[in-house]
Amino acid sequence: MSFSGKEDPKTLVLFDVDGTLTPARLTISPEIKQLLQDLRKKVVIGFVGGSDLQKQVEQLGSTVLEDFDYAFSENGLTAYKLGEKLASQSFINWIGEEKYNELAKFILGYLSQIDLPKRRGTFIEFRNGMINVSPIGRNASTEERIEFEKFDKEHKIRETFVNALKEKFPDVGLTYSIGGQISFDVFPTGWDKTYALQHVESEGFEKIHFFGDKSYKGGNDYEIYEDPRTIGHAVNSPEDTARILKELFF
Ligand code: M1P
């Protein structure tokens, strides 16, 4: 599979999704979609999202696997090149059933002990490359998400929860990442967004750009933004992404 039809096939441009290509939790605008199509004629493009592929299909469109050269979901634990699935690992194989059971029991026990104004459903979402833990539950509506985020800012629910997990499981080698509004991701240390880079290592790219809005320390774009293999661009909205793309490539 080659990229030789492009103007500059040795340059790869990777994007975070939420807050970088789309407004948080919302869908991509026709303008950004068109800009990406134009960019794709020049260079190789891909996205690296924390969420699972289903969420990215909702946000970037049902043709997402055709619209990007690389599609990296769950930090690259689910990966596609030109629509074809690449090999991947799984969280459960890495951690093992016994340890995962212990972790899940602790999480559900902890959640049963804390006071929250609202609880909905799906407190642990089991994904291929990680688990996602949400105190309010992933079935929360958009309005309930906003309420929870506000409550969490004030009461530090997620931060305290993550500290309790770190204390309870100091030696498991897990990383906890608060990337969105109502939840945090739990994955093996090193399986952050830099994981996606191993899928492109043998392709001989001379430049790999990365655009992300959570590029600050503690944000889920930080590691790949800082990685010496990438040229990092910290952005604050899809419009900001578009502005930098136009400066760099058009
Ligand atoms: O992409 C950032 C995060 O988006 C979602 O977070 P939340 O539901 O809390 O807003 C999740 O899909 C999470 O895994 C992801 O990191």
UniProtKB/TrEMBL annotation:
Pathway: Nucleotide-sugar biosynthesis; GDP-alpha-D-mannose biosynthesis; alpha-D-mannose 1-phosphate from D-fructose 6-phosphate: step 2/2. One of its GO terms (cellular component) is cytosol. Its cofactor is Mg(2+). GO terms for biological process: GDP-mannose biosynthetic process; mannose metabolic process; protein N-linked glycosylation. Alpha-D-mannose 1-phosphate binds at R25, R127, R138, R145, S183, D185. It is found in: Cytoplasm. It catalyses: alpha-D-mannose 1-phosphate = D-mannose 6-phosphate. SUPFAM superfamilies: HAD-like. InterPro entries: HAD-like_sf, HAD-SF_hydro_IIB, HAD_sf, PMM, PMM_cap. The keyword Cytoplasm applies. GO terms for molecular function: metal ion binding; phosphomannomutase activity. It is an enzyme of class 5 (isomerase). Belongs to the eukaryotic PMM family. Homodimer. This is Phosphomannomutase.
